[in-house]
Amino acid sequence: MFHKNIKLIIALLITVWAGFEFYEGHIMNGISILLLAGLFILFYFKNEFILLAFLQLRRQNFEGAKKWLRYIKNPSSSLTKKQEGYYNYLHGIMLSQTNITQAEKYLRKAIRLGLSMNHDLAMAKLQLAGIAMTKRRKREATTLLAEAKKLDKHGMLKEQMQMLKQQMKKI
Q1: Nearest to residue 130, comparing CAs of 85, 166, 84, 90?
Q2: 3-33 pLDDT, tens per residue?
Q3: Into how many domains does the chain fold?
Q4: Which of 22, 49, 58, 79 has the smallest count of CB within 10 Å of its CB?
Q5: Are 157 and 128 in contact (CB under 8 A)?
Q6: Contact 78/3 with Cβ under 8 angstroms?
Q7: Confidence of residue 98 (pLDDT cuts 50, 70, 90)
Q8: CATH code: domain of residue 74
Q9: Domain match, 20 and 56 both
Q10: What residue numbers bound the domain in which 3 lies?
Q11: How far is CA 77 from the centre of its chain?
């Protein structure tokens, strides 16, 4: 919606307004206005369009997720580094169903830019391992699978890793 720096400027202006309300003795107004400033700060760190795309992806609505990601015009300048990583991660996940070459490019860029959560990083490496296995690069797939296993501390991807290992044995 707004550029990342504009969000911070708006949050600063709203915080000054809240300070004025506190000075005037309108405590509840000041608290409410500070909550509004907190919303802009939250959206500085977590882009609203990426959050909405994740919500659509959880519902298996790929078209809805693509629609929300299209609202981000220039990701390299309007997003922070981690947000750009998630932008590429989402594109890679969606493209892994249709175009694995493009998906590999997006997932590698997402890993290079960094993802906040280990689970997301493990999922990206698992997707890359599947793509490498599809392209008959068994050594790379094994390495990526081992890295994904290290990152998946809660065992959420255990079944997918087992299935991938079974398929790698057939190659």
Answers
A1: 166
A2: 778 889 999 999 999 999 999 999 999 999 9
A3: 2
A4: 58
A5: no
A6: yes
A7: confident
A8: 1.25.40.10
A9: no
A10: 1-45
A11: 16
DSSP-assigned states of every residue in 52-63: HHHHHHHTT-HH
pLDDT in tens, 26-79: 999 999 999 999 999 998 888 899 999 999 999 999 999 999 999 998 888 888
- What DSSP line would sit under 105-141, residue for residue? HHHHHHHHH--SSHHHHHHHHHHHHHHHHHTT-HHHH
Within 10 angstroms of residue 54's Cβ, the number of other Cβ atoms is 16
Distance separating alpha carbons of residues 15 and 112, to the nearest angstrom: 35
Q: What tokens does 142 get?
A: 């094994």
55: tokens are 């919500």
51 and 37: one domain? no
Quick one: tokens of 166? Answer: 């079974």
CB 106 within 8 A of CB 88: yes
